[in-house]
Design goal:
Elements: H1 2-5, H2 10-15, H3 17-70, H4 73-83, H5 88-119, H6 127-132, H7 135-141, H8 145-151, H9 155-175, H10 183-206, H11 217-248, H12 254-291, H13 293-320, H14 322-330, H15 335-344, H16 347-352, H17 355-363, H18 367-419, H19 421-428
């Protein structure tokens, strides 16, 4: 009825590709979080707390190396796909070169692990688990999320991701029943992902008629050189987002660390929202920026206003519901964790502030500017949170992380103003 009255253009909203991208990316991220929550008690019951910790430790090493495997293609490749959506030859060469580069990087990362384990004697407590986890590197290398994101066809890949995680969950239930099976946990996660990725690649080749050519090593080398700044930007972003807990571990005991970790895990789920927004609007924004910059600025402003409003609402709800959230997750009243969650709740809104700056840097291919901003933010985070955690413990860490988002926004604003005033005035005027 509302649609007929013209008050809410529901059909237009559903057909909007940026909104579809956001919804399907949100489905992917939320399914990953949900499966993680479901699998946690199953794994602890099956392999024990000690082996569960070692499995997660091996996974953290793999996640760090996956930044190398990704090498910034998650930022550059969707833009290239978006601007060549109707050119199957260009898409075929792009797909072939990106996958070849990522598989090569996965092989290098695997070699690093093998040398570390068998040559240098590193990772002794969980070396076997880590070696079995290398399949996750190739699962990351063959994941065509960036391709479907650029094509603005996210439905299939989101369904495939859910199916992959359900396969992993089924594997845990059927096979993981003793501590000796811990080495197979990450292996199954990588195997299920790789299997589904091969299905997606078959779909791309058969139904989208994208061919796989022999890799052009000169083009791969050029793309690697072009993406090196994106790689370091992703690395600094990973440190900025996940470094707080590591810093806190030097100053706090296990119980306090657990309280903060519980609150941080809730906030990190909420913090996925601005990243999903940028990924969702990136292909459409890239096309608009190339064809009509005025249309791009209008589009970005509309998105920004809506995102800030939504971010403010969610941040407020997280603050008000903090006691209930901690109660549900921990099944006990942990006042310290509630305090941390309430302090961190504005993080969602603050991280939304920088969405237009990051989007403009990406669509304008300002890799050096993004690299500079990322590392300045990373250095500030390390210094500020270290000092404030030393002085005020967990409360200081929360305040340091919040101030990092404000400083990051300020840094991006100043760099854009100094280096590309046309972009700056185009959006902010």
């Amino acid at each position: 009825m509302l649609e007929k009255l013209g008050l809410i253009p529901i059909g237009d909203i559903i057909r909007n590709k940026s909104i579809q991208n956001f919804l399907f990316l949100a489905i992917i991220q939320s399914s990953n979080v949900l499966i993680s929550i479901i699998s946690m008690p199953l794994l602890i019951q099956g392999i024990g707390v000690d082996q569960f910790g070692l499995v997660n430790l091996a996974l953290s090493v793999i996640i760090m190396l996956n930044i190398l495997v990704g090498f910034g293609y998650n930022l550059s490749a969707p833009r290239e796909v978006a601007v060549n959506q109707n050119d199957k030859v260009a898409l075929s060469h792009l797909l072939s070169n990106v996958f070849s580069a990522k598989i090569l990087l996965a092989a290098i990362a695997t070699l690093m692990i093998l040398v570390g384990v068998f040559g240098l004697g590193l990772f002794k407590e969980y070396s076997l688990i880590l070696v079995y986890s290398v399949l996750l590197l190739f699962s990351e290398a063959t994941l065509p999320l960036w391709f479907f994101q650029g094509m603005e066809k996210m439905k299939l890949v989101s369904i495939a991701n859910i199916f992959s995680k359900l396969l992993f969950l089924m594997g845990i239930v059927l096979f993981i029943h003793s501590p000796e099976m811990s080495k197979w946990v990450n292996f199954m996660l990588g195997f299920s992902g790789l299997l589904i990725n091969l299905f997606l690649l078959t779909y791309i080749h058969t139904f989208l008629q994208i061919r796989f050519y022999k890799p052009q090593f000169s083009a791969i080398w050029v793309s690697l050189k072009e993406n090196v700044l994106f790689f370091f930007s992703n690395l600094s972003g990973y440190i900025s987002v996940n470094g707080g807990l590591i810093i806190f571990s030097f100053f706090a005991g296990a119980e306090t660390l657990g309280m903060y970790s519980l609150a941080e895990r809730v906030v990190m789920v909420l913090r996925l929202f601005p990243a999903i927004i940028i990924q969702a609007i990136f292909p459409n924004a890239s096309k608009r920026f190339k064809k009509d910059e005025h249309s791009f600025y209008r589009f970005l402003k509309i998105v920004y206003i809506r995102v800030l409003l939504f971010g403010a609402i969610i941040a407020t709800l997280a603050y008000l519901a903090a006691p209930w959230i901690i109660q549900v997750l921990s099944r006990s009243e942990l006042n310290e964790a509630v305090t941390y969650l309430r302090l961190l709740s504005p993080l969602l809104f603050l991280s939304c502030l920088n969405i237009p700056n990051i989007t403009m840097m990406l669509v304008a291919d300002l890799k050096q500017l993004l690299f500079k901003a990322s590392w300045m933010m990373c250095l500030y985070m390390i210094v500020a949170t270290s000092i404030m955690t030393y002085l005020f413990q967990g409360i200081g860490l929360c305040l340091g992380i919040l101030s990092t988002e404000i400083v990051a926004y300020s840094i991006c604003m100043v760099l854009l103003y100094k280096r590309n005033r046309k972009l700056f005035h185009g959006f902010y005027s």
